[in-house]
Write a structure and sequence with these properties.
heterodimer; A: alpha+beta; Arc Repressor Mutant, subunit A; 4 helices; 3 strands; globular; B: mainly alpha; two-stranded antiparallel ribbon; 11 helices; about 0% strand
């Protein structure tokens, strides 16, 4: 029983680690078009990458501090919303990250195919 | 069946979200990002409410709003996630850890060292102020370090054990405390009362030299003001006038929200200086009865000796307690003023407005 709990906790931690890097790529990719927090969260969830408020907003601020995003408070539908979009530096980084992603994905597929033989 | 009108639903939503945000803010570290994060979280919640309304095709009921907030997580948990990343103590426990640390270090240890350990060191050192201050700071530093270490250790242990126990905080969005008004202008009634009492106090003070019974009552027949009251009469009149002026300005310029906390602090500081000078003068005074003395007519009457001694000791005790009270008030006022400044400086240029569509 205790072993089962330990395994599920371990799996959760590993899934969390796996998701962490993917989320950054997903957020950067989504922000090629300008969006505000909630629509971004919804778009990610619709594509199968649900993310809670407490994770997304600190991540957006971190990416902005790193110069990958730019943001602006603007009024829309009579409410002030903070809009985010990819900065020029973010576009370069995203391109490089996607190349890295393709490379990792290809390697992983190759490893999995070899293992299943 | 939906019983709420769209207007009341909007009011309910705004009120519930504001209560929720207030609770999150309480646990969030007070950095320049706090208002920004709260504004953005508020906007997210309002959008979630709207989406749910669109999905249902009707205004939301309070339990449905509460369900959305409950799904977001307890305010403490959300604040933990929104705050900076921590490793030793996780986001769920960190706000409580920070709260306990502040309470113990700032509100228990520091006052204990200032008001108990400091004076004790002063007495031990035979009145040597510099040595007493140095020793108190040294002791305070070690005390803070040890207390912070113990608290951190306890919370780190709780973090490790609770992760295995899977404990969850029980909370109800509908039972969150009501929203407190922030950055309020000073109450007009309070300021008018202060002004009225200030006028009364100043007139009373100005009449004292001519009508001593106003302070001594029937004892004025055989007691009169001593050298200390004579010497410090003018500073107290000036302080009283300054207080009156302060109330007048607050009344005339209620939009100067910075003025009341700053002027209260200045007032307390000046009062502390006067009281401190009085206590210093007392230690140098050759007179056994510095505050009140016997009238010339009864100066040699032994039956009044005990009475005059009691009155002087009572006034001395009042001065000492007032000094202590003003010290505490000044610390609180410094804290309040710093909070005011921090809030002023940290406010983002534009905060999301309230109200749903």
């Amino acid at each position: 029983m205790a072993n089962g709990t330990d395994n599920s906790e371990l799996l959760e931690n590993l899934k969390l680690e796996l998701r962490r890097g993917c989320l950054i790529v997903a957020v950067l990719a989504q922000l090629r078009a300008e969006q505000y927090g909630y629509t971004l969260r919804k778009a990610l969830a619709d594509d199968g990458l649900a993310i809670d408020e407490g994770t997304l907003y600190p991540l957006l601020r971190r990416l902005e501090t790193q110069g990958l995003l730019v943001s602006q408070w603007r009024e829309e539908d009579k409410r002030n919303k903070r809009f985010y979009r990819l900065s020029p530096a973010g576009e370069v980084i995203l391109k490089q990250l996607l190349e890295e992603w393709e490379s990792i994905n290809a390697s992983l597929n190759k490893i999995l195919q070899e293992a299943s033989l | 069946m939906n019983t709420s009108s769209p207007d009341s639903s909007t009011r309910n939503a705004t009120e519930l979200i504001e209560r929720y945000l207030q609770a999150v803010r309480f646990w969030l570290p007070r950095t320049h990002r706090q208002d920004d994060l709260i504004a953005e979280l508020g906007e997210d919640l309002r959008s979630q409410f709207e989406d749910k309304e669109e999905e249902l095709g009707r205004a939301l009921e309070r339990p449905e709003m509460a369900a959305i907030l409950r799904r977001c997580g307890s305010p403490m948990m959300v604040a933990g996630r929104l705050g900076p990343q921590r490793h030793l103590i996780g986001p769920a426990l960190f706000p409580i850890y920070e709260f306990v640390l502040k309470m113990v270090l700032l509100w228990i240890l520091v006052p204990v060292f200032i008001f108990i350990v400091g004076p004790a060191n002063l007495v031990d050192g035979g009145g040597n102020w510099p040595m007493a201050i140095l020793k108190t700071f040294g002791d305070l530093w070690s005390g803070l370090f040890i207390a912070a270490g113990i608290i951190t250790l306890v919370f780190a242990i709780i973090e490790r054990t609770s992760a295995h126990l899977g404990t969850e905080i029980k909370w109800d969005p509908l039972k969150l405390p009501p929203v407190r008004k922030q950055d309020r202008k000073p109450s007009r009634l309070k300021t008018v009362s202060e002004f009225g009492f200030g006028c009364f106090g100043l007139v009373w003070l100005l009449l004292l030299p001519h009508y001593p019974f106003l302070i001594l009552g029937p004892a004025a027949a055989f007691l009169k003001a001593g050298p200390m009251l004579h010497n410090f009469y003018l500073p107290f009149v000036l302080l009283s006038t300054a207080g009156l002026l302060r109330s007048g300005i607050t009344l005339a310029r209620p939009q100067w929200t910075w003025f009341p906390p700053l002027s209260e602090l200045v007032n307390s500081t000046l009062l502390l200086i006067v009281l401190h000078s009085m206590i210093q003068a007392l230690t140098r005074s050759p007179s056994a009865y510095p505050f009140v003395v016997l009238q010339d007519a009864v100066r040699d009457s032994p039956k009044y000796f005990k009475l005059v001694a009691i009155v002087n000791v009572s006034i001395l005790a009042s001065v000492a307690f007032t000094w202590l009270g003003v010290c505490i008030a000044a610390i609180v006022q410094v804290w309040a003023f710093l909070r005011y400044l921090r809030k002023r400086m940290s406010a983002p240029p534009r905060i999301a407005t309230l109200g749903l569509r």
